[in-house]
């Protein structure tokens, strides 16, 4: 009898994990806390995982964090042009929406980006994104404030 487990060599762990999908903990961006119910962290559904990813994409500046080096993750124009009044011009809004749409459609779970709305205030920018997932579900990520 061995103290080490004996694995079936025919078992493909990568294939099994792809069938089950990824597990992610649900994070509430409004309260800036992990969602805990009855003392246990809540697991995010596929739609919630995509919503979290989109939210994080918009909040992340390209090149700011080393973990995202050479991945292209994050927004470039949004943070390069912040503080200017360019987001009140049609060109600025169009460029912002182009970058968001391009990066979101690169995610494999997303089928199509339907709508992107942005509104700029004196010192803020609010973005709302509506996407269709490959599962057919429509998802709206609202009020990402920068």
Give the secondary structure arrangement, pairings included.
Layout (H helix, E strand, L loop, with lengths): L12 H8 L6 E2 L4 E2 L1 E2 L2 E2 L4 H14 L17 H4 L9 H16 L4 E11 L4 E9 L4 E8 L1
Antiparallel strand pairs: 1-2, 3-4, 5-6, 6-7
**Lateral arrangement of strands in the main beta sheet:** 5-6-7
Number of DSSP helical runs: 4
Enter the CATH topology name.
Answer: Nuclear Transport Factor 2, Chain: A
- How many beta-strand runs? 7
Instruction: Give the distance, in angstroms, between the N- and C-terminal Cα atoms.
Output: 59 Å
Category by helix and strand content? alpha+beta
The succession of helices and strands, N to C, reads HEEEEHHHEEE
* Helical amount: 25-40%
- Runs in which pLDDT lies below 50 for 5 or more consecutive residues are none
Question: Would you summarize the structure shown here?
Answer:
This protein has 146 residues and is α+β, with helices and mostly antiparallel strands. The protein has a single domain (26-145), classed as Nuclear Transport Factor 2, Chain: A. 29% of the residues lie in helices and 25% in strands.
